[in-house]
Amino acid sequence: MATTNDLKNGIVLNIDGQLWTVTSFQHVKPGKGSAFVRTTLKNVLSGKVVDKTFNAGVKVETANVDRSEMTYLYNDGVDYVFMEPDTYEQISVSPETVGDSAGYMLENSTVTLARHEGEPLYVELPASVELRIAHTDPGVQGDRSTGGSKPAELETGATVQVPLFIESGEKIKVDPRDGRYLGRVK
Q1: Which segments constitute the Elongation factor P C-terminal domain (predicted)?
Q2: Does 39 reside within a domain?
Q3: For a tag site, which of 48, 131, 139, 170 has the least CB within 10 Å?
């Protein structure tokens, strides 16, 4: 248990049996009345975002979420298999838990796996990943109807928008949170 004074970004709360991550908070002391804390919470499992207000000093239940570095091994056709690098223990994670991160994970890449009471919650990738382009159509000079970008399929199967000068076989940097092209990798 913690009080609303202990709230900070990234802390996970257990509210009515559901896990919520604090994405932003603000302590408010109005001229009249008692102080309160205005928060923006994101549901850990569904991704739903809500605003919630707590009275100052109220106790809130925190959840113990363990984040550990894991190595992504392979997809066995049903689940994604990760390995603890220290103990070599393997854990299978469902596609629903992995979510959109699957499109940006290469075999033997390091990811962060968040677990609550041993149950996998979500997979967190680094801020940028380097992937090779499997296929993209050649860019036509003068074709600016799409803002100077074209779709490209990555080696993992995900599709991202890239500038017209990018060709198949090149290695690029991508933001896995929104699938945004960040640049070429030399």
Answers
A1: 129-184
A2: yes
A3: 48
